[in-house]
Design goal:
The protein is mainly α and 581 residues long. It has 23 helices and 7 strands. The strands form 3 sheets. A 3-stranded mixed beta sheet has the order 2-1-5, with helices on both faces. A two-stranded antiparallel sheet has the order 3-4. Strands 6-7 form a two-stranded antiparallel sheet. Strand 1 and strand 2 form a beta hairpin. Helix 4 runs parallel beside helix 5 and helix 5 crosses helix 6. The longest helix has 25 residues. The model has no long low-confidence stretch (mean pLDDT 89).
Length: 581
């Protein structure tokens, strides 16, 4: 297989289809109604090898060809295993038949004698591309490799196990040795005679690749990432050095190790980060290819090849940074100028607020200094909570701003000013998340016993982080004045100040029990301590809390409807100062 072929991708669904095909062909052959079965197409290109016979590189058909080889290997395995267990074989004829047929199948489909530099060598008929090569060899040889870390390795092993069990079960259905051998003979005949392929051999890689694209209809059966890998490897094959080819192959291997849906999503983010626009729903491959190889030359120069290798390597770096960010990790090396609190805001933005539209901007911003990147994260965090999470404004205008600034950063990272981002986001808040709209929506937030309450939890945790800045006069941009304390989102809980299950209940407070004004945050141990206790008993716990908001609540003499409403209004007033850009 050439380097630009995709890795093995058949799942249980395709394997089950293959079993059904085999069952149908086997049933017809047993009834003496041999039924030809079209196994698919195969596109290859001739590749002369010095001192050896011409080899064919598979451009399309790898999946079915690799699976067919696995199937043949397992038929051979079952034949040889049965040959050692025959009971009714006094003259040894059944054993000899199985051994001879196994040898024939091996010579037809698995191995051949090739003359290499005046030496006859036993070589594999099919070699997969580098990432799957050794694993596939060990699998076919029956060595049971257990290092199935790559997705393609797991799928190869699953296919091997599934097909092996299927063939063994077909044989086990028969009760006597002669019938078992006949079953295997029929299976072999199906593979040798009944199943056919259309083999299209071309003389140039370009012709083969053009046919490959037509047969796959621009991505039907292949993902955009796999097509981009195929095309970039193909155009580099004739001009790049082996060292360059190895580098770019490693990059694509790492990129495509992710789930196909995630690969496409990240490609779209990176494309927007470079171009300032989102690719079309069905044109990602073409648009990204134009980005990687702008002029689409038929043959690359050495300089163009080097530029393409660099572009793919940068693509791989961006993939790794995005993977870190989506996992809540800081994507920049060295943390001397940012604190754990600063780094935690990135996870809150992407994982808790689930705002990924800004990733094109964030991946571009990794070219900036640590402090500048952190400032952008915190600005986006406050912006998106007000704009989208609470005010529910359409994200399109904000996404356009993100993409515009991603392009600006990539064009001139050393001169980029965060103030320009602030200047473009502020009008969106004024228009779509005004003070009145924001505070009205905040006031309508209520605790839900059925849905997630992440929005309320995030809001109260953020208010707590900026509370000291607010109490000191709220001067300038919002600043957390105690970054030594990082509240753990997962282990921070919402607490009803007037309990949900109060006994006895208060008819005045019951209607507002789920109101934002009746909620606060606690650590897990604090929550256990207060439970469903009445306010007068909770006051002592609140007074000792490390949460400043709770200390303020503990200073109140009573907790009634007026206190709930006043507390909610106070939170809204603080929010207007904190959630700004």
């Amino acid at each position: 297989m050439p380097k630009y072929q995709r890795h093995y991708a058949w799942t249980a669904e395709e394997i089950d289809d293959l079993k059904a095909d085999l069952a149908g062909s086997l049933k017809a052959r047993k009834a003496s109604q041999e039924r030809p079965h079209f196994f698919g197409g195969l596109v290859t290109v001739a590749r002369p090898h010095a001192g050896s016979a011409t080899k064919l590189e598979v451009i399309d058909g790898q999946q079915r060809l690799a699976t067919f080889v696995i199937l043949v290997a397992q038929v051979i395995n079952v034949m040889l295993e049965l040959s050692t267990k025959l009971v009714a074989d006094a003259d040894g004829s059944l054993r000899k038949f199985l051994e001879d047929r196994a040898g024939t199948l091996r010579a037809q489909f698995l191995r051949l004698d090739d003359t290499v530099s005046l030496k006859v060598e036993d070589v594999a008929r099919l070699e997969l591309s580098k990432p799957d090569y050794l694993f596939f060899v060990q699998l076919i040889q029956g060595n049971n490799p257990d290092d199935a870390e790559r997705t393609s390795h797991k799928l190869l092993k699953a296919a091997y196990v599934s097909l092996g069990k299927y063939i063994a079960d077909l044989v086990a259905q028969e009760s006597i040795d002669h019938q078992k051998v006949t079953q295997l003979a029929n299976i072999a005949k199906v593979l040798e005679v009944d199943w056919t392929v259309i083999h299209m051999e071309t003389t140039t890689v370009q012709h083969a690749y053009n046919l490959f694209q037509v047969l796959n209809d621009r991505g039907v059966g292949l993902t955009e990432g796999e097509l981009l890998r195929a095309k970039t490897m193909e155009v580099l094959d004739a001009v790049a050095t082996q060292e360059q080819l190895d580098r770019i192959e490693k990059c694509w291997d790492d990129i495509l190790s992710e789930a196909p849906g995630r690969v496409e999503e990240v490609l779209r983010w990176i494309f927007a980060s470079h171009t300032g626009k989102r690719p079309g729903k069905t044109t990602l491959y073409d648009e990204f290819l134009q980005h990687l190889i702008p002029s689409h030359p038929a043959v690359l120069t050495a300089s163009q090849a080097a530029s393409l290798v660099t572009a793919v390597e940068n693509l791989g770096k961006d993939f790794k940074k995005i993977a870190l960010m989506l996992d809540g990790q800081w994507p920049l090396p060295g943390h001397s100028t940012v604190t754990a609190w600063d780094r935690d805001r990135l996870g809150l933005l992407l994982r808790e607020l689930k705002h990924t539209n800004c990733i094109p901007l964030l991946i571009a911003a990794t070219a900036l200094k640590q402090k500048t990147f952190s400032d952008i994260v915190q600005m986006l965090e406050r912006f998106v909570f007000r704009y989208k999470s609470v005010s529910n404004a359409h994200i399109g205008p904000a996404t356009n701003v993100y993409n515009k600034h991603a392009v600006a950063i990539r064009a001139a990272p050393s001169t980029y000013k965060v103030t320009t981002l602030r200047a473009d986001l502020q009008p969106l808040l004024l228009t779509h998340a005004s003070d009145s709209r924001f505070t009205t929506a905040l006031g309508e937030l209520e605790y839900s016993t059925l849905a997630s309450n992440k929005t309320i939890k995030y809001f109260l945790m953020t208010i707590e982080h900026y509370a000291r800045w607010y109490q000191d006069g709220a001067n300038g941009a919002p600043v957390c004045k105690d970054k030594s304390r990082v509240l753990d989102f997962a282990n921070t809980t919402l607490e009803h100040i007037y309990p949900q299950n109060s006994s006895p209940s208060d008819p005045h407070l019951t209607p507002v029990v789920q109101s934002l004004g009746n909620l606060t945050i606690l650590g897990p141990t604090d929550n256990d301590a207060v439970g469903n206790k009445p306010f007068l008993q909770k006051k002592a716990v609140f007074a000792k809390s490390t949460i400043s908001l709770n200390v303020q609540i503990s200073s109140l003499a009573v907790w009634n409807v007026a206190a709930v409403n006043a507390w909610k209004e106070g939170l809204k007033t603080m929010a207007l100062k904190i959630f700004v850009v």
